[in-house]
Design brief:
Blueprint (H helix, E strand, L loop, with lengths): L1 E4 L7 H4 L8 E4 L5 E3 L3 E4 L5 E3 L1 E7 L8 H4 L3 E8 L2 E2 H10 L4 H5 L4 E3 L3 E2 L10 E6 L2 E7 L7 H11 L7 E3 L7 E3 L4 E7 L5 E11 L9
Parallel strand pairs: 1-13, 3-9, 4-16
Antiparallel strand pairs: 1-2, 5-8, 5-14, 6-7, 6-13, 7-10, 11-12, 11-15, 15-16
């Protein structure tokens, strides 16, 4: 899985200390971070876990050096997802110029909803993304606020590494990023411009039993 950072107009420098990028910046997430809807998100000891609700792009036809004009023909569909981040760990590795693999790659740190065929979505750049914690809305944004549109993301990622069938590109998150605590119930939704719900994704946060412990 590839995930795009600092990608929404209303989410960036003020919220996370990011500057507006000149080109897409992405990182990789392991497939072992996948969590199906209804599962338990495991938060490791000492980790401050932040939610980032996102639209995922599912690649149907692989390729490399894909142009923006050809990008649409390589997309099979979409998915609702949450890119979880160990924020306090990320703050530390950013200072040291170290990779983000552990920050983004814990088991269960990528909850993903159902596959949505491309034919079910009229305009992927006019969708509503929302996330609630214990019934309280924390994120409520639109894909219209993307800095780089989806064809540009496909072009950029495929210019660096070949994309394969089934690959998932997470396209960035709107404002409202914040912490999830053990015991929290999280509800996410993806809707079209009319308000029609295309998918819902739910999960419960719990404390991870054993494994890595973060100490600042």
């Amino acid at each position: 899985m590839a995930s795009i950072a600092a990608q929404f107009v209303r989410q960036g420098k003020k919220e996370l200390g990011n500057t507006r990028p000149k080109e897409p910046f992405f990182f990789l997430k392991p497939t072992t971070s996948y969590l199906p809807s209804g599962g338990n998100l495991e938060i490791p000891s000492g980790v401050v876990a932040h939610h980032e609700v996102e639209l995922g792009v599912v690649i149907g036809t692989g390729g490399r050096n894909i142009s923006q004009e050809a990008a649409e023909s390589h997309i099979a569909g979409y998915a609702l997802a949450v890119d979880m981040t160990a924020r306090n760990m990320q703050d530390e590795v950013k200072k040291k110029g170290l990779p983000w693999s552990a920050v983004k790659g814990f088991d269960t740190f990528t909850p993903i909803g159902k596959y949505i065929p491309k034919s079910s979505i009229t305009d992927a750049h006019n969708l509503k993304l929302s996330l609630k914690i214990n019934g309280v809305t924390k994120q409520d944004g639109t894909t219209a606020d993307m800095i780089f549109r989806i064809p540009r993301l496909v072009e950029h990622v495929s210019s660096i590494m070949a994309l394969e069938e089934g690959d998932l590109i997470l396209t960035g998150t709107p404002s409202g990023v914040g912490a999830i605590l053990p015991g929290d119930m999280v509800e996410c939704a993806l809707a079209d411009a009319s308000g029609k719900i295309l998918d819902e994704l739910t999960f419960t946060a719990i404390s991870r039993d054993g494994g890595y412990q973060f100490k600042s």
